[in-house]
Write a structure and sequence with these properties.
CATH class of the largest domain: Alpha Beta
Strand content: 15-25%
Oligomer: single chain
Radius of gyration: 25 Å
Bound molecules: glycine, manganese (II) ion
Largest sheet: 6 strands, mixed
């Protein structure tokens, strides 16, 4: 791991400055970011902790519970009275010798101030008592409603308390605004430091997919291939998978949200692997489909080359000013042309696009944003229109074809074949860079990696 990539606290400070600047241009207020909580898997065993992406993006703080508040306060003429307001306030688990023996080191309120740059820090236990005071006369509240009912209720109580105190001069937030136009716009356009992290996640992921192609031989089980993949993630300094690893052999490849199960990989099948490693809270999202016996059959190859052709065409459409709708349309047209050629669809290309007949075999979208979350934040549509791409945005391009095993309309040779090919692209000034270009993809590259 390169130490410079880890906890670059200056990077988080720069982000906060930029966010405060943007908040002031949007009417000021307070940005409230709950930390993730530990979740029980079963009594006394927890799921692996993963910090909330919004919280981490702003603070770099990686412990559960509490929240961070970024306070721009009121704007305009009233701003002067606001000058001694803290900008970053954190509520954290306090240092506790006894608890730290069991569950590990805590930064505590001292660490929140000294290491993470909080102007004020308090123990989590003081949160409910202090929240109304922090929101009083501070302008609108930026908060994502509808994620955690406990937080929605906590925010509601703080606002109600200020309303009750309005006769004594309290001013509750005049409104609650969603994070989309503030924080999520910022997260959508990746800085060079973020692209560097995604690049690292992509490198780790490329190794993992090559390991899967080598390991995924007849007789192996999906779960064993998954283990090879996740071993590669951890061995190279990744945190693990950024989302549930999919290893789907044979007809399982037609189930879009299949996870690695225990099915044995068989000679003559394709194995679909959708897996991405996470590095410093940024994840790759890559799919490859390879022949278990190391060589595509004729029908498998025909469908594979069609998906690949559509993917390459869609990728060529990625550039500043283009839209995800346009990228999807290019992809769909190529797929429909090929499906008619191969006898999966009948009639004309425009007809099948128009009546959406292609959805029988291609039922998902071509792209989504990618970053700290696999389906990353950021608006897809602005004013009802697919938004133009801009340099620094990161997206997947992931066409597929899925022919159900019992699809009596499909030529028999294609039944039960599921294929997806997925790469991660960063939009550049003139086009795109494929961050996951190192993962074998052409028929020849895949077959020569699947040494049997
Ligand atoms: N792995 C989830 C997706 O491809 O969108
Ligand atoms: Mn994806
Ligand atoms: Mn994927």
């Amino acid at each position: 791991m390169e130490p410079t990539m880890e906890r670059d606290l200056e990077m988080f400070r720069r982000r906060r400055r930029a966010l405060l600047h943007r908040m002031r241009s949007l009417g000021g207020g307070v940005l409230l970011l709950p930390a993730a909580e530990e979740k029980l898997r079963n009594p006394s065993a927890e799921y692996l902790f993963r910090q909330d992406s919004d919280h981490y993006y702003v603070t770099g703080f990686d412990e559960p519970e509490g929240c961070a508040l970024l306070i721009a306060g009121k704007c305009g003429a009233e701003a002067a009275a606001d000058e001694d307001r803290p900008e970053l306030v954190m509520f954290v688990r306090p240092r506790d010798k006894e608890k730290e023996i069991w569950t590990g080191y805590r930064a505590g309120v001292e660490g929140a101030r000294e290491v993470y740059g909080a102007d004020q820090a308090y123990p989590v236990a003081e949160l409910e008592a202090r929240l109304p005071g922090l929101l009083d006369k501070a302008g609108p509240l930026w908060f994502r409603l509808g994620v955690d009912p406990a937080w929605d209720a906590r925010v509601g109580r703080a606002i109600a308390e200020l309303r009750n105190r309005s006769r004594a001069g309290s001013e509750p937030p005049p409104g609650v605004k969603d994070l989309e136009l503030l924080l999520h716009e910022a997260r959508l356009v990746k800085s060079p430091e973020e692209v560097a992290r995604l690049r690292r996640a992509a490198e780790i992921t490329a190794e993992a997919h090559m390991a899967a192609m080598r390991d995924g031989q007849p007789g192996r089980r999906e779960g064993q291939v998954q283990a090879e993949i996740e071993y590669a993630f951890r061995r190279r300094g990744g945190a693990g998978p950024g989302y549930g690893t999919i290893v789907a052999t044979g007809v399982n490849g037609c189930v879009l949200h299949y996870r690695a199960g225990d099915t044995v990989l068989k000679d003559g099948e394709l194995c679909l692997v959708d897996a991405g490693g996470e590095y410093d809270l940024y994840t790759a999202d890559v799919t490859r489909t390879f022949p278990v016996n190391g060589a595509f059959s004729k029908p498998q190859r025909a469908l594979y080359e069609l998906v690949l052709e559509s993917q390459l065409a869609a990728m060529e459409a990625v550039k500043p000013g283009a839209t995800l709708d346009a990228v999807h349309d290019v992809c769909v047209r190529k797929l429909v042309e090929g499906m008619i050629r191969l006898g999966l669809l009948q009639g004309g290309v425009d007809e099948r696009i128009e009546d959406k007949g292609f959805r029988r075999y291609y039922m998902h979208r071509t792209s989504h944003w990618l970053g700290m979350d696999v389906h990353d934040v950021g608006a897809y549509y602005l004013d009802g229109k697919s938004r133009p791409l801009a340099a620094g945005m990161v997206l997947t391009v992931e066409p597929g074809l899925y022919v159900a095993p019992d699809d009596a309309q499909a030529p028999e040779e294609f039944r039960g074949i599921g294929i997806r090919i997925e790469d991660d692209l960063v939009v550049t000034g003139s086009g795109y860079e494929n961050l996951t270009d190192a993962v074998p993809k052409t028929v020849e590259e895949v077959e020569s990696t699947c040494v049997r």
